[in-house]
Amino acid sequence: MINFNSFTDEKLVEYVRTQDQESYRELVKRFQSKLLRYATYLTNDEHRAADVVQESFIKAYVNLNSFDINKSFSTWIYRIVHNEAINIIKKYQKEISRDDKFDIPDDKNMELDFTQKELRNQIKKCLKQLSLAYREPISLMYLEGYDYKQISDILRIPIGTVGTRINRAKKMLAKLCQNLKP
């Protein structure tokens, strides 16, 4: 069995294309949790997000030969997820808040853990109040770690627009979250 850890995403795509289609599973493993998190922020629903990611992986696999190996696979797959999520949002025309599960911490810092979890939940609620145009770029930057250029490629908007939307989103979040207490 081949160790794919040393393969870049693009090298792995080339391997899947030419050698072994079964190794596509490795690409799925690399991206599944990140894409699920991203899709959840777009759709505000874990079940729909899972459907979006599954459909996106299928579309990516079917269209793998059209992927330009000289570009970033990550940007390409995120764009597919973006398109699928937009299609789902348009189809259902309303956002449904995802269920937040309550976990009871096991350690001695139960009160601190509860406070931190509550703060995270409040920030997520504030983020959900932003329109998709602002929620998406700020999520890509701060939750997924993409830079302005990559966000521009994923969303297919100018870099200046990315910056504007991120700055406006920050200001909106500051207003929405001003009453949060740690």
Automatic annotation (TrEMBL):
Pfam families in UniProt: Sigma70_r2 (PF04542), Sigma70_r4_2 (PF08281)
Source organism: Candidatus Beckwithbacteria bacterium CG23_combo_of_CG06-09_8_20_14_all_34_8
Name of this chain's protein: RNA polymerase subunit sigma-24
Keywords assigned by UniProt, alphabetized: Sigma factor, Transcription, Transcription regulation
UniProt-listed GO biological process terms: DNA-templated transcription initiation
Domain RNA polymerase sigma-70 region: 27-93
Domain RNA polymerase sigma factor 70 region 4 type: 121-173
Cleaved signal peptide residues: none
NCBIfam families cross-referenced by the UniProt entry: sigma70-ECF (TIGR02937)
InterPro entries (alphabetical): RNA_pol_sigma-70-like, RNA_pol_sigma-70_dom, RNA_pol_sigma70_r2, RNA_pol_sigma70_r4_t2, RNA_pol_sigma_r2, RNA_pol_sigma_r3/r4-like, WH-like_DNA-bd_sf
GO molecular function annotations of the record: DNA binding; sigma factor activity
Family: Belongs to the sigma-70 factor family. ECF subfamily.
